[in-house]
Design the sequence.
């Protein structure tokens, strides 16, 4: 298994290109199930999770093609063709929970789906009850058997008013896609409003869907008989943007994040400013620079536009070398502090009390061998390694490859001493 070795202490300077968001690309690919015509996505990130979704769509019968593997043209994915199989098998779903996003489109399009029930994962139990309840309200008959969800609606789905008890990202996406082909009007109230959901909605509209309230917590969808093909550029990855902003800040450097969008960072921009990090928006991206010292800033994870749970680990790495203290409270997932013991092995002073972590900044971290436990935890250890004295080796890098494209190349191009050690 590959490892990443970092020799820390070098400030980053240069430019990093921000690619299309993984969390937008995955539902956008699932939207390809809603039509026989071609859905062409551009600005596709080259990531393991995108490959997993490609495999899943292919076994549903779709042709998923990369017209060209070279340069920017290689970032185009063309999805199309009839659905020949409505089962999403355990072997793929267990690798990636976002596989559940095929459920709504399959039922809406062909009236049935059998999708392996995603299990818990290292960051929490992550049930899918909101996806299932919403589909039931739209008339699907849902049952669980042998570890699989079966949902059927032979006469089609019908519009419904769905009040979500919690603004789940995945449930909002699944139900919005299903509602596009349902009979009549669907209202999703207390919907999640992450930029990736708005990007999916924009793509669906360009396929002929009728969606009002995009970007708000109340989506109104008028079902249509059929959707058609489209070409859609995937929105820039705000988590990749925030992660590299933390990399610039933790090393005391200055980096231009080409393609990054300040407006999509939500509370991350304010928290970074409070910590002493300057972010200025230009036409083609954001320039990030640490002003003087790093200051402690408290954050609480919340649905967008609050501070994203997917940035909590990276911000914790940053706070571990601040000149004060910070309290980081996790409200989205119940077990998302697995990076804490690893950061502490590098000399951080972090205590966890229930769903909060108290971080007391130290002047310097020291390099150590560490173990990546999930995607964002992995990258927080890379950030810590960039700032630490000496050598850090991050093991189990496959987590990182699920969501970050060529992380070591991007950081090395800005002056980091970092390399991948093939395992
Ligand atoms: C998405 C993101 C993930 C991010 C998360 C929260 C993708 C592919 N993944 O995951 O990176 O960390 O949003 O911003 O976009 N819940 C239920 N029942 C449900 C659905 C969710 O209880 O039916 C709970 C979950 O257990 C969790 C919380 O709601 O505690 C948030 O989950 P959700 O917003 O659905 O996250 P995902 O779509 O899985």
Sequence:
């Amino acid at each position: 298994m590959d490892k990443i070795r970092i020799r820390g202490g070098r400030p980053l300077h240069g430019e990093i290109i921000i690619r299309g968001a993984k969390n937008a690309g995955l539902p956008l690919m699932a939207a390809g199930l809603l039509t026989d015509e071609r859905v062409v996505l551009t600005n596709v990130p080259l990531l393991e999770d995108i490959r997993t979704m490609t495999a899943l769509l292919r076994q549903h019968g779709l042709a998923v093609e990369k017209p060209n593997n070279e340069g920017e043209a290689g970032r185009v994915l063309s999805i199309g063709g009839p659905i020949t199989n409505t089962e999403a098998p355990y072997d793929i779903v267990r690798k990636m929970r976002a596989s559940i996003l095929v459920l709504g489109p399959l039922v809406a399009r062909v009236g049935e789906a059998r999708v392996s029930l995603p299990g818990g994962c290292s960051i929490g139990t992550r049930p899918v009850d909101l996806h299932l309840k919403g589909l039931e309200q739209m008339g699907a008959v849902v049952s669980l058997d042998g570890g699989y969800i079966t949902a059927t609606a032979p006469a089609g789905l019908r519009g419904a008013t769905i009040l979500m008890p919690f603004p789940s990202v995945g449930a909002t996406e699944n139900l919005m896609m299903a509602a596009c082909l349902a009979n009549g009007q669907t209202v999703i109230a207390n919907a999640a409003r992450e930029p990736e959901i708005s990007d999916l909605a924009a793509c669906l509209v360009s396929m002929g869907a009728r969606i009002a309230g995009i970007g708000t917590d109340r989506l109104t969808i008028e079902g249509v008989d059929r959707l058609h093909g489209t070409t859609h550029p995937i929105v820039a990855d705000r988590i990749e943007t925030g992660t590299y902003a933390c990399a610039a800040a933790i090393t005391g450097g200055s980096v231009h994040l080409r393609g990054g969008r300040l407006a999509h960072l939500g509370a991350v921009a304010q928290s970074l400013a409070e910590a002493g990090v300057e972010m200025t928006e230009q036409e083609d991206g954001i320039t990030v620079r640490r002003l003087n010292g790093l200051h402690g800033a408290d954050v609480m994870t919340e649905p967008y536009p609050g501070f994203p749970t997917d940035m909590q680990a990276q911000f914790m790495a940053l706070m571990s070398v601040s000149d004060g203290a910070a309290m980081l409270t996790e409200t989205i997932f119940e077990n998302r502090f697995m990076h804490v013991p690893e950061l502490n092995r590098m000399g951080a002073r972090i205590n966890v009390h229930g769903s909060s972590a108290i971080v007391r900044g130290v002047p310097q971290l020291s390099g150590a061998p560490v173990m990546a436990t999930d995607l964002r935890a992995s990258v927080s250890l890379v950030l810590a390694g960039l700032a630490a004295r000496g050598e850090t080796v991050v093991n189990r890098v496959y987590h990182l490859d699920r969501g970050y494209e060529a992380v070591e190349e991007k950081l090395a191009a800005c002056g980091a001493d970092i390399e991948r050690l093939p395992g």
Summary: Residues 23, 26, 97-98, 124, 126-131, 166, 168-171, 192, 308-310, 332-333 surround uridine-diphosphate-N-acetylglucosamine (CB under 6 Å). The chain has a mean pLDDT of 95. The chain has 14 helices and 24 strands. The radius of gyration is 21 Å.
